[in-house]
Amino acid sequence: MSKKVLITRIIPSLAYELLTQAGFEVSVWEGVGAMTQTQLMERAQQVNALISLGSNKIDSQFFNACGHLDIIAQFAVGYDNIDVAEATKRGIPVGNTPDVLSDATADVAFGLMIAVSRKMFYLHNTIAKGEWKQFEPLKNLGIELHGKTLGIFGMGRIGLVMAQRCKGAYNMKIIYNNRGRNEEAEKRFGAQWVSFDELLEQSDVLSVHSVLSDETRGLFNKSAFAKMKRSAIFINTSRGGVHHEQDLIEALQTQTIWGAGLDVTNPEPMHATNPLLSMPNVAVLPHIGSATVEARDGMARLAAENIIEFYKTGNVPYCVNPEVLKR
Ligand code: GLV
User: What is the pLDDT of residues 111-156, one digit of tens each?
Assistant: First the structure.
């Protein structure tokens, strides 16, 4: 009998095509927006495997109802919505979709950095409001990036591409803080590992590319911002939970730091009245890091391949808890 897969949101059709060609019976949640928790559990109870999204809460309550699942293939590189420890306890592999979205996400971090350094989003809005009257010799001044220091928090695949962009475009000095050393970044870009405090103190641009975990939740808070340069730009394209949003607002209002670019906010969606949206040195995007045709197709392909390969060979090509796989 063919295995059943539920895709919890409409994603690029490639996932559906690859799975059906491989003989799976695929159903797709076609409702507007994310499934409710009840809908998710009810539908997941009827299948063998799941393609999940970040908006699905795959927690212990979910596992109590759906502990029968063979595999969960997340359509994202991040998986902080999934209780991986619980999945591991139950022997359920969790797949994700790295690499295919690294260029797209690093582009958003790089673009936000430039947009903030030149106040682009804010100035765009002033034109729309009819406020552009004349050339202003002393107004609208930004800061240049050439030769500045880029600090990367979380030197993984996306951080590495951001480092490459910044080295190539602006010959920036690269420093980074990560649990382990990243030899590739050190060899290719002369990146230097520094302590977390050194990262805060020395970065002209500090770009966050880490996972959201118990160690990183709320890490960029009042005391972290206080250690940063007054001229520093804070960029976050990972997860909104890594920064404390009220502390960030205050750091910008008190000019403790110079600017911020966010593709992820806390909460999401950001409320339209959030003061960050009207600050000159701030640029905010609605979590579009991986939103390119190429990246989303790649994510659909990897999510499908994680499931197909698992049933074929017992291996999951991109698995975040490989210890559950049979050797
Ligand atoms: C997007 O945020 C992802 O984790 O892939």
Answer: 999 999 999 999 999 999 999 999 999 999 999 999 999 999 999 9
Q: Is 325 helix (H, G, I), strand (E, B) or coil?
A: coil
Give, rounded to a whole angstrom, the gap between the first and last alpha carbons of the chain.
25
**DSSP secondary structure code for residue 322 in this structure:** G
φ, ψ at 7 (rounded to 5°) = -105, 125
All domains in the chain, ordered by first residue: 4-98+292-326 (3.40.50.720), 102-284 (3.40.50.720)
Locus of tokens 């939103």: 291
Write the secondary structure of 103-159 as one string of H (helix), E (strand) and C (coil): HHHHHHHHHHHHHHHCCHHHHHHHHHCCCCCCCCCCCCCCCCCCCCEEEEECCCHHH
CA distance 175 to 163: 9
Q: Which residue has the tokens 């582009």?
A: 107
Q: Which residues are annotated as catalytic?
A: 239, 268, 287
Closest atom of ligand 1 to CA, residue 239: 2
* Candidate from 79, 101, 239, 299 with most ligand 1 atoms within 8 A of CB, to mutate: 101
Total residue length of the chain: 327
